[in-house]
Amino acid sequence: MSELNKIALKIISNGKGILATDESTGTMTKRLESVQVPSTSENRLSFRETLFSSSSMKNCIGGVILYDETIKQVSKSKKNIPELIAETGAVPGIKVDTGAKVLSNSINEKITEGLDGLRERLKEYYKLGARFTKWRAVYIISEKYPSKLSIHSNAHALARYAALVQESGMVPIVEPEVLMDGNHNAEACFKKTSEVIKKCFEELFFHKVELNGTILKPNMILPGTNSGQKIDNKEIAEMTIKCLKESVPPEVPGIAFLSGGQSERDATKNLNLINIHNNTNFIMTYSYGRALQQSALKFWSKNIKDVENTQKIFNHRANMNSLAAQGKWTEEIDKV
Ligand code: 5MM
After folding, report:
1. pLDDT at residue 1, rounded to an integer
2. Best mutation site among 21, 22, 65, 297 for ligand 1 pocket (most ligand atoms within 8 Å of CB)
């Protein structure tokens, strides 16, 4: 077993998943201001530290994705944040892309940037304690999108990123996110997501990326938010599994889904059904941002000093998702 494969398995095995707290300062500011909390670096750390010191970290969270600001911060107990996370048994990770920018010659689409100087930044993050990384490419769906240009250029960047990350001794999370926005149906999401993922693996292969030392972070197959299509959760799970079975090489150890704007409950329910019907060898787990943090953030915003009850809310969501990652979740258990 290679070192990278060991790290990947440590992050996603035994009902564990990933806590995505890598919101850039701009996104975190939107999240905090939506609940009337000023976005200071102190407040950003205070909420995140509350999550990282929760008891569910030990059994439910195998990896935490940090943002550049957080990985360099120090906790109230005077510990470096990666150290605080590693003490819970979770692996510290870092978002290394520098954001999605307008794609020339297809101005409605985006290309993710961050390759310049990446090798040097990776060395610094490794020294700070990171052992895995994340890079997110975003794609929109409509009749003519995602364009071939967006599919090719983002896959190329993801592969160059993944190769550099492995060279530096870390596991790359490859995140091609086909957005939920739009009036397309689930069949269109299936078709476009399959095309996007297949292209990513073609490029990863071409760049000689060791597939068993990577984790894929895809969207689930869902109808567009404005489509009005009613679809059964079981159907979502089956289409998602079919898409991944056909598009992901078997060497990849696991898949950690993003929640993408689904409600907390839906993200858990769909993951549970995916695991009940999983007929692949891939570990299927979570790498949720909003679907792990939303309720905790809402409570915390009104009770900033109440660490204990904020953690209770986060622990509940983390436990529910851990059960879902094992196909053991039920509506009954999720009643609070
Ligand atoms: C945590 O949010 C990340 C957003 O980062 P930006 O500030 O750069 O947009 C995002 O990449 C996230 O890791 C994934 O989309 C998963 O989060 P959700 O909320 O979709 O589960």
Report:
1. 78
2. 22
| Number of domain units in the chain | 1
Residue 103: CB within 6 Å of ligand 1?
no
Is this prediction's pTM over 0.85? yes
3-state SS class at 262: coil
Active-site amino acid positions: 175, 217
Domain hosting 284: range is 3-334
Q: Is the pLDDT of residue 336 over 80?
A: no
Dump pLDDT digits (tens) for 113-139: 999 999 999 999 999 999 999 999 999
Name the helix (H) or strand (E) containing 275: helix 264-277
- The reported pLDDT for the residue numbered 32 is 98
Minimal-distance CA residue to ligand 1 atom 8: 24
Domain of 123, CATH number, reads: 3.20.20.70
Query: How far, in Å, is the centroid of ligand 1 from the Cα of 110?
Result: 15
Residue keyed to tokens 């896959």: 155
